[in-house]
C-alpha cells in the first residue's frame, strides 16, 4: 500500500510529498533517500514537526502513518 508523507527541509523553505510502499522492508532508509533527493540535500535525520522527536526506524514510521 502506498503511503504519502509530507516533508520539509530544516529551514522550512521547501516542502515535498514522499510516497512510499508501507510493505517496504527498508521504509526508513528509503524515506530518507527519497526525501533527500526531492529536497536536494544530504539528509540523514527525520524528526516530528510537532516536537522535534527523532524518527529512527521503520516501525515508528508505520505507527505514525496509522495514527494519522
From TrEMBL:
<keyword id="KW-0053">Apoptosis</keyword>
<feature type="domain" description="CIDE-N">
    <location>
        <begin position="1"/>
        <end position="68"/>
    </location>
</feature>
<dbReference type="GO" id="GO:0006915">
    <property type="term" value="P:apoptotic process"/>
</dbReference>
<protein>
    <recommendedName>
        <fullName>CIDE-N domain-containing protein</fullName>
    </recommendedName>
</protein>
<dbReference type="InterPro" id="IPR003508">
    <property type="entry name" value="CIDE-N_dom"/>
</dbReference>
<dbReference type="Pfam" id="PF02017">
    <property type="entry name" value="CIDE-N"/>
</dbReference>
Amino acid at each position: 500500500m502506498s503511503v504519502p508523507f509530507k516533508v520539509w527541509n530544516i529551514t522550512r523553505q521547501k516542502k515535498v510529498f514522499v510516497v512510499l510502499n508501507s510493505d517496504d522492508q527498508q521504509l526508513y532508509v528509503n524515506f530518507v533517500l527519497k526525501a533527500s533527493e526531492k529536497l536536494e540535500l544530504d539528509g540523514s535525520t527525520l524528526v516530528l514537526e510537532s516536537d522535534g522527536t527523532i524518527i529512527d526506524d521503520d516501525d515508528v514510521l508505520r505507527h505514525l502513518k496509522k495514527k494519522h
